Amino acid sequence: MTEQAADTVIGMSDADLAVHPTVYAPGSFQGKTVLISGAAGGLGRAAAWLLGRLGARLILVGRKQDRLDSLATALAEKEIVAETIALDIRQQGDVQDLFRHVREKFGQLDLLINSAGGQFPQAAIDFSEKGWNAVIATNLTGTWFMMQAAAQFWRDTESKGSIVNIVVVTRHGLYGVAHTIAARAGVIGLSQNLAVEWAPLDIRVNCIAPGAIETEGWKVYSPEARALYHRSNPMMRNGSPWEIAEACAYLGGSSGSYITGEVLHVAGGGQHWGETWTIGKPDYFKE
């Protein structure tokens, strides 16, 4: 990939997501209710399109109502109905209100996909207290609030459920975002612990660790850094949001019914070999 290529349109449009081929059979999520946080972003948006096309009832959550409305409008053009709710997952009271609404209106929840998150590239030595706290609060604490509220929903309704948390590859080199590494590692540890604790409630908890996936979120990284992302894994390519969406369907649906406490890396093998420098690779480590 050249630097020029890294500056072209990033990610998949709604038009792309509406028609992209899938390995899943039509109707494979019919009758299921799916809640997706960070739904207006690249990965959450792809998951919404896939699961909506497969028949799921969608509850889409994000911080910006206008972006959620744009997605809902695009989905409606393909006769996919979605309810949108703007909230900040860092506010526990708002999260509890969300799940109360889901129970009152739908009475059912089958899958929670925690895709909400965010970070910014910066050398860790220069992190401010505010910057650190913002990333930890969104990626770890907010995810926990969503997980806990979902588990309480399933416990109180005596129904089973599944949680899929979107994290990052925490081994073999994602540099320049140490705050998100700390937060996502916390989510992984939390998920593995709760997979055991919540097993008696018939709640499965898993994680998906994307590698270099082309989304609009890449815009925060420099073209120079992005130009090398395809070399962050032995397959020597970037992934697409659709590949993450299909992984969500696999782990979150009936196909993953005997899987819990796992981290599925969708990273081209990047967890075994490779490195990603979001702030540019220091001269010290260059050949």
Quick take:
With 287 residues, the chain is an alpha/beta fold. Helices cover 39% and strands 15% of the residues.
Provide a descriptive summary of the structure in words.
The structure is a single chain. The protein is α/β, with parallel strands linked by helices and 287 residues long. The protein has one domain: Rossmann fold (3-Layer(aba) Sandwich). Helices cover 39% and strands 15% of the residues. The strands form 2 sheets. It has a 7-stranded parallel beta sheet, sandwiched between helices. A two-stranded parallel sheet has the order 6-9. Strand 2, helix 4 and strand 3 form a beta-alpha-beta unit. Helix 3 packs across helix 9 (241-252) and helix 6 (129-157) runs parallel beside helix 7. The longest helix has 29 residues, at 129-157. It is globular, with a radius of gyration of 18 Å. The chain starts with a helix and ends in a 10-residue tail after the last strand. The relative contact order is 0.15.
Entry keywords:
single chain; 287 residues; alpha/beta; Rossmann fold; 7-stranded parallel beta sheet; two-stranded parallel sheet; 9 helices; 9 strands; 39% helix; 15% strand; globular; disordered N terminus
CATH architecture label name: 3-Layer(aba) Sandwich
Structural class: alpha/beta
Broad shape: globular
Cα(first) to Cα(last) distance is 19 Å
For the largest beta sheet, what order do the strands appear in spatially?
3-2-1-4-5-7-8
Summed over residues and divided by their number, the pLDDT gives a mean of 93
Strand count, sense and closure of the main sheet? 7 strands, parallel
Secondary-structure element order, N to C: HHEHEHEHEHEEHEHHEE
Q: In CATH, what is the homologous superfamily?
A: NAD(P)-binding Rossmann-like Domain
User: How many domains comprise the coordinates?
Assistant: 1
Q: Beta fraction of the residues?
A: 5-15%
CATH class: Alpha Beta
- Rg on CA atoms, Å: 18 Å
Enumerate the spans where pLDDT stays under 50 for 5 or more consecutive residues: 1-9
What is the tally of beta strands?
A: 9
Q: Please, how many helices?
A: 9
Helix content: 25-40%
CATH topology type: Rossmann fold
